[in-house]
Specification:
The chain is 62% helix and 0% strand. It has 213 residues and is mainly α. Pfam families: DUF4129 (PF13559).
């Protein structure tokens, strides 16, 4: 159907401005807006284009152009690495979680107290397991070791030996005692527990700067 010009409604200035504001408020326009990084990259591109133009190329030596190009390229790469891609969220690991195959939030002091309680009751297996976890937890709480998730007792012992080289043999023996009970099901003894507890006590009292390199 053909409509006459009299049937066409023409908005006035206020209506037109309102329609424009509503249209520009659409999120797709905000998404299409260039970021500050885009603007900087555009300005750098224009700078390089002007620098290598025939007018400026004659006044600037080739060595200077190469040096400037390298600097600008390095800055672009650094900016792209830092801001051009989303950073990975760094998980905050609590000292008490995921240590030696157990999700345990007890502190080193609590683990030692529980280990001693088991020892007084003659449960040397549980006492040995808890005491080695107390040893590792204490060093972790002091930021002396940083075991990866799922680290074994031997891996922890190797980290400890780096911080306290003089304790390398006792710590490795303590790790063996833990593995014997925890995984090989070998029964612990009062003597082995006493050695492990003595190692833990020494490490608790030591400071890295007091140990000879």
């Amino acid at each position: 159907m053909i409509r006459s010009l009299d049937d066409v409604w023409v908005p006035d200035g206020d209506d037109a401005r309102q329609w424009a504001e509503q249209e520009l408020s659409d999120p797709r326009y905000a998404d299409a807006k260039p970021t500050w990084f885009d603007l900087v990259a555009r300005d750098i591109g224009r700078f390089l284009a002007d620098l290598f133009s025939s007018d400026n190329g004659a006044s600037v030596g080739p060595s200077a152009l190469i040096i400037v190009s390298i600097i600008v390229f390095g800055a672009l790469v650094a900016a792209l690495i830092i801001w051009g891609r989303p950073r990975r969220a760094q998980a905050v690991r609590r000292p008490g979680s995921g240590l030696l195959g157990a999700d345990d939030d007890r502190s080193a002091a609590q683990l030692r107290a529980d280990a001693d309680r088991c020892a007084r009751g003659g449960d040397w297996d549980e006492a040995t397991i808890l005491r080695f976890r107390a040893l590792a937890r204490g060093l972790l709480e002091r930021d002396l070791i940083d075991p990866s998730p799922g680290a074994t007792a031997q891996a922890i012992a190797r980290e400890v030996s780096v911080v306290f080289p003089a304790e390398t043999t006792p710590v490795r023996q303590a790790a063996i005692s833990f593995d014997d009970v925890r995984y090989l099901r070998h029964p612990a003894t009062a003597e082995r527990y006493a050695e492990l507890a003595a190692t833990d006590d020494r490490l608790s009292a030591l400071r890295p700067e007091a140990v000879p390199a």
